[in-house]
Design goal:
Protein name: Nocturnin
Cofactor: Mg(2+)
Enzyme class: hydrolase
Subunit structure: Interacts with PPARG.
Structural class: alpha+beta
Catalytic activity: NADPH + H2O = phosphate + NADH; NADP(+) + H2O = phosphate + NAD(+)
Bound molecules: NADPH dihydro-nicotinamide-adenine-dinucleotide phosphate, magnesium ion
Distance between the termini: 52 Å
Length: 365
Amino acid sequence: MGNSTSRLYSALAKTLNNSAASQHPEYLVSPDPEHLEPIDPKELLEECRTVLHTRPPRFQRDFVDLRTDCPSSHPPMRIMQWNILAQALGEGKDNFAQCPVETLKWEERKYLILEEILAYQPDILCLQEVDHYFDTFQPLLSRLGYHGTFFPKPWSPCLDVEHNNGPDGCALFFLQNRFKLVRSANIRLTAMTLKTNQVAIAQTLECKESGRRFCITVTHLKARTGWEQFRSAQGSDLLQNLQNITQGTKIPLIVCGDFNAEPTEEVYKCFASSSLNLDSAYKLLSADGQSEPPYTTWKIRTSGECRHTLDYIWYSKHALSVKSALDLLTEEQIGPNRLPSLNYPSDHLSLVCDFSFNEEPDGLL
Ligand SMILES: NC(=O)C1=CN([C@@H]2O[C@H](COP(=O)(O)OP(=O)(O)OC[C@H]3O[C@@H](n4cnc5c(N)ncnc54)[C@H](OP(=O)(O)O)[C@@H]3O)[C@@H](O)[C@H]2O)C=CC1
Ligand SMILES: [Mg+2]
């Protein structure tokens, strides 16, 4: 290991382990200024691979080209949507069966999460179930050039788990060299006017290169069967909030989320038919361009096997084009024990798309 690599490794290990001697809850520890030196993503990726060398290799996933016919003078924006699986929920609430105990060890799982992010290098990262924001993702991603925002759930179920690391919530990161933050809103979702335990972050960003503005949103709706109407109400509230944010400005939208809803559910239909003219990016991977993937999460709980399509990237279909999308894992890659696994850290797959602005957006939101 060369000198600069060793220094990087030691800085990374320190950042990733800095809670051990702290008297404060880990999630409240602010990063030491020493850790704010920039990190080269390639070097950091190498370090992840070193730490993970005893694990099976990462799954190979390819980007599928979707629109080669719409030339754009600016580089596309890469958006990543991912429910990373809260550490406390994975260990204390999710009841995963057939999931080897080493799979859930945070000391290695965090490197797998980081490796997945570094492998695709998104310009914008929308995460759910983040319960290691302040001690892990904020300090590291800020050194990689990202601006981060975290909005915890008001009553996170993580807090019920012994040795938890604080509440889980949504996090939104964007690369500061590509975007300027124009406006940021933390939204506590309501259902039939009642405040709920689910949240969203909506940020208006301006592309430094093109000057174009858009609104990026991350959310995580209420889980579980029996809550379909509740999810639908939360979705309507989110749409109303986005309507208010974009009203008058007609800026394009990208909404990333774990909606906890199959495409047959009311909340999906509300988004698909909204006056905001949204479409779901991952449909474009299907043969007819009209079908969602067969699954975005696949796990075996003690209560049985759960294979569902719950995660989406919605976008303003007239103002934006999806240039490419990262394909999903095959059943064979996922394997018989499903997710999370030794080589994939979450029970949800990451969704990654490259977007470009269409040339004539006026009035076409
Ligand atoms: N202290 C207090 O006063 C309060 C505490 N709470 C706590 O919060 C919990 C509910 O919070 P809420 O936000 O509504 O939670 P949700 O029902 O939305 O689920 C929370 C998490 O559980 C995961 N999950 C989904 N299905 C299952 C399952 N079958 N088994 C295990 N985990 C699952 C979800 O993951 P995914 O999205 O990946 O499916 C999700 O991240 C309560 O159970 C309680 O623990 C809530 C309110 C008040
Ligand atoms: Mg979960």
